[in-house]
Design brief:
This protein is α+β, with helices and mostly antiparallel strands. The chain has helices spanning 16-23, 31-49, 144-159, 177-181; strands spanning 2-7, 56-62, 70-73, 78-87, 93-95, 101-104, 110-114, 127-133.
Length: 189
C-alpha cells in the first residue's frame, strides 16, 4: 500500500502577511525564507496529524483488496473519491462504477466500501484510488489550532535559522506544538 500526493495545495493555510505579523517583521528582505518556513511547517503539521489542510489530491495504490469489507484512506478529511481504477494482467485500466462505492468521510480515517470488488490482474499496484482531501480551498477553512501550530513552528524555526540550514529542519519542535496538534493526530490502525 502506497499513499502519495498527486496535486499539491494551491495556497498555504497561513499567508505571508499573517506570518510576518506573528513574527513582527515589517521589511521584505526575509520574505522568501518565511514563505519556505510556512510551507515546511504545513508539511510538518500534515505529517504529524495525517491531515490534508488545504484541498489537494492523493492516490492510494494497492496490490490487492484488504481483508474485510472496507479500506481506509489514511489522509483526512476526505472530500470525495475521484476514481477507483483496477488494472488487468496486461496493464489495461478499468474504472470501477462509482455507484458501487460508498464513502464514509466522517470516520477517522475515512472508510471506503466497494461491492463487488473487481480483482486486479497485476501483482503489484493493481488498484489505484484517487481522492481529494482537505478542509477547503482557503486558509480560513483550516481549524484555528492547526493554523496556530504552523505559526508556532514558523516562529521557532525563524528564531533558530542562523544555527541550522533549511535542509536540516525540523531540528526541534517548540513547546506547546504537540498540545496544539494532539486532537488532530491520526489514529493508529
Amino acid at each position: 500500500m502506497t499513499l502519495f500526493r498527486t496535486v499539491d495545495p494551491l495556497v498555504e493555510p497561513v499567508t505571508l502577511v499573517e506570518a510576518k505579523a506573528h513574527l513582527r517583521i515589517g521589511h521584505l528582505s526575509e520574505d522568501a525564507l518565511i514563505e519556505g518556513l510556512i510551507r515546511a511547517a504545513r508539511q510538518e503539521v500534515e505529517k504529524t496529524t495525517g491531515q490534508a489542510l488545504i484541498d489537494q489530491s492523493w492516490r492510494l495504490t494497492l496490490d490487492d483488496w484488504p481483508q474485510g469489507d472496507v479500506l481506509y484512506l489514511n489522509r483526512t478529511p476526505v472530500r470525495e473519491v475521484l476514481s477507483v481504477t483496477v488494472f488487468d494482467a496486461d496493464g489495461a485500466a478499468s474504472i470501477v462504477d462509482p455507484a458501487t462505492c460508498q464513502l464514509d468521510a466522517h470516520a477517522q480515517p475515512a472508510r471506503l466500501a466497494i461491492a463487488p470488488r473487481p480483482l486486479p490482474g497485476q501483482r503489484l499496484n493493481g488498484i489505484e484510488i484517487d481522492f481529494r482531501a482537505g478542509y477547503g480551498e482557503a486558509g480560513t477553512d483550516v481549524p484555528d489550532l492547526l493554523r496556530r501550530a504552523i505559526l508556532l513552528l514558523v516562529a521557532h524555526w525563524f528564531e533558530f535559522r542562523a544555527s541550522f540550514g533549511a535542509e536540516d529542519q525540523p531540528v526541534s519542535l517548540p513547546a506547546g506544538y504537540q498540545r496544539l496538534v494532539e486532537g488532530y493526530r491520526k489514529p493508529r490502525l
